[in-house]
Amino acid sequence: MENDTILARLPYADPFLFVDELIEIDENGAKGAFIFRETLDFYKGHFPENPVTPGVILTECMAQIGLVCLGIFLLNEHFNTKSSIALTSTEIEFLKPVFPGERVVVQSTKKYFRFGKLKCEVEMRNENDEIVCNGVIAGILSEYK
To answer: Choosing from 46, 103, 117, 119, which is the catalytic residue?
Structure first.
């Protein structure tokens, strides 16, 4: 499956799409990037005098790239408009802030995918190749009626 096809199948839209580019993907993991543009609405309130990207948004970015893109790839033709993706657990450690205008790269490594549950180790790095946050994310991929 081509990277552009995976991106087109993501069940998100602006302003809640946190994937700009899918760099590489295979059955063992995914790597992608996102730029936290200064115009993103949450910066107006997440600290107006010194805006910083909220941890929940960093987690969502890692989930979209590292779990959802990988899940679409793994499900391939079984992923369709009746597919559902639900985050089931996260254990993330935040090490550095991400400021408006920064580009981050997310790398995920599949721990397992069985019975519709995908669990991955994830890591986000900034443009200086420093680890911003890392941990484990799991989710369920299923078809609903």
So the answer is: 46
